[in-house]
Amino acid sequence: MIMINSVTILDYIGTFAFAISGIRLAALKKFDWFGAYVVGLVTAIGGGTMRDVLLNTTPFWMHQPSYLICTALALFSVILLGNHIIRFKHTFFIFDTIGLGLFVVVGINKTLEFGFPVWVAIFMGTLTGSAGGVIRDILINEVPLIFHKEIYAMACVLGGLIYWGCYYFGLEPAITQILSASGVILARFLAVKYKIALPQLRNIN
Amino acid sequence: MIMINSVTILDYIGTFAFAISGIRLAALKKFDWFGAYVVGLVTAIGGGTMRDVLLNTTPFWMHQPSYLICTALALFSVILLGNHIIRFKHTFFIFDTIGLGLFVVVGINKTLEFGFPVWVAIFMGTLTGSAGGVIRDILINEVPLIFHKEIYAMACVLGGLIYWGCYYFGLEPAITQILSASGVILARFLAVKYKIALPQLRNIN
Amino acid sequence: MIMINSVTILDYIGTFAFAISGIRLAALKKFDWFGAYVVGLVTAIGGGTMRDVLLNTTPFWMHQPSYLICTALALFSVILLGNHIIRFKHTFFIFDTIGLGLFVVVGINKTLEFGFPVWVAIFMGTLTGSAGGVIRDILINEVPLIFHKEIYAMACVLGGLIYWGCYYFGLEPAITQILSASGVILARFLAVKYKIALPQLRNIN
User: What is the average pLDDT score of chain C?
Assistant: First the structure.
């Protein structure tokens, strides 16, 4: 049974926002509705699917249709709203970032539940949060955005390190998870606001 | 033991046709023989492999070498026939479409056998039929064709819905499978003949 | 516990060299440090990860952090050495080729241990050696190098056939593995030195 609690609601909001980000890029590439749906879906569930494949377990979205439905709703919104959707740009950015914080923590929790050490969990949290966007960019035939712009994945890593710290000092799981997700969210907001970026590699070829 | 029955023959024909479609695109990109083999193989077995990885089972082609051999035969045909292969274009289109119908039904059957609900099976049938072509297009560094042209994947979804309907009304498995595969094949023929396509998304960025 | 023996040392050297090859291409594409790390990591562990996913087992690098650390060391080397790294070009080529030989044999061994027949093992050995470079090229949005240049994967296949021959004639495992790895290494050196390449497919479209 699906528990409709606050985490579930955040999960749906995050899925919806991730899907919107994929569908907008698909529109830019003149994809048809099916193509847009696939790109939106892959953005939303790609990271968690890669995590579950590496953990050697059935992908999370195969247990209940809500993630496929969320993506369909995102597609319908984009089709119906059209150009008006650009007005909600800031709202989507906030949803997207909240989703990121949640996905990272979900990825860490699940990996620890499978008995892996903390460094694998931090890896999987980062993968859960950022691999969907990488697969999205591969599908639209662009160089993945997070490899040369924005501190997106580093926010995930930071959230993972906060989780590790809290875990090490024996904090309550609920507090650990809230602090970790907040770290991800805050790091991304600050990075975007102050245009903080990692240095590029010098061309050494 | 390998049963040489009509389904097996159709399976080999479909594999061969899918491999040819990959090898032709590889030739366009001036790939060498090895590259062409890989692109052909991925086109033929990529969808079923993704399905089996998601179902958390050993990929189907690891149980017997026939799929690797079929792809090798497709490569030799292209090397030997060269430009003459273009004459068989319509034949390949027919084989390719029959293969598509079969692969969708195989994907649905296998997913149901693993105990998943029908909506997962429809998803997996569509994946089995169309993901190989997506990976092929990623390997040749093009935007996946099925995201902006042709009702290819929608034919798979339609076949899945027909399967669902037959299943719901308790039809015989054999009849269910034949109707479902026929639906895929017919939908694709009609879509190509009458140039039916899904609407594109308006650019909303 | 990690055994520091000669195979482990070769494994680290190979991982380091594969990671360097990815990081250098990432630098050419102006990736930031994170992007470079990911591309380096994927080049080093991508092939083995795909093999382990297909074998339906936990990826090898999730058991101990040494592969992630090796890649971090490769990134730091590139950042610190900058342009001077080009001086070690020949050394890296040698390390890379030794790594290739080792990875192929490791892939074959592991697949046989899982009870698969030799043809699957040869496939997996080739995948272990060459799939990381393919994923690397997808991430930097280029057509995979090994599909149109160099006998890279064919050296892996040759090593696999040597393994098969030795195995068939009942040679000692240690000798089989050394001969197979040497075959890979020698084939690649000769192919690069004498510019041996597979024929391209004629354009038949």
Answer: 92
CB contact under 8 A, B86 and C53: no
- At residue A203, the pLDDT reads 67
Give a yes or no: residue B205 inside a domain: no
Instruction: Give the pLDDT score at B203.
Output: 67
Q: Cα–Cα distance between A19 and A132 in angstroms, integer?
A: 10
Nearest-by-Cβ selection for C78 from A120, A154, A204: A204
- Residues of chain A in contact with residue B205, where contact means CB-CB under 8 angstroms, are 24-25, 27-28, 86
Chain C residue closest to A58 (CA)? C56
A89-113 and A33-54 helices, crossing angle to 10°: 30
Task: Find the distance separating the first CA and the last CA of chain C, reported in whole Å.
Answer: 56
- Supply the DSSP symbol for A85: G
Count up the domains in chain B and report the number.
1
Structure pTM? 0.94
C-alpha closest to that of C51 among C118, C102, C110: C110
Q: Which residues contact A117 (CB under 8 A, 6 or more apart)?
A: none
B20 in a domain, yes or no?
A: yes
B32 shares contact with chain C (CB less than 8 Å) = yes
Domain assignment present for residue B199? The answer is no
- Residue A56: what pLDDT? 97
Enter the tokens of residue B123. 């998803």
Residue A186 is predicted with a pLDDT of 96
DSSP C140: T
Domain residues for A21?
Answer: 6-193
CB nearest B205 (choices: A28, A36, A81): A28
Touching A: C residues 128-187, CB under 8 Å: 138-141
Q: Which of C53, C146, C200 sits opposite B30 (nearest CB)?
A: C200
d(CA A13, CA C9): 47
What pLDDT, in 10s, does the model give residues C69-93?
Answer: 999 999 999 999 887 877 888 888 8
CA atoms lying within 13 Å on the CB side of residue A1: 3
Q: How many Cβ atoms are within 10 Å of C179's Cβ, its own excluded?
A: 16
- Neighbours of B, requiring at least 3 CB pairs below 8 Å, are A, C
Structural domain contains residue C1: no
C-alpha distance across the termini of chain B, in Å: 56
Q: Above 90 in pLDDT, residue B5? A: no
Burial grade of A113 (CB within 10 A; 0-12, 13-18, 19 or more): exposed
Length of chain C: 205
Residue in C with minimal Cα distance to B40: C147
Q: Which chains border A (3 or more CB–CB pairs < 8 Å)?
A: B, C
Nearest C-alpha neighbor of C71 from the set C6, C135, C20, C128: C20
In this prediction the ipTM stands at: 0.92
Nearest to A27 among B141, B154, B203 (CB): B203
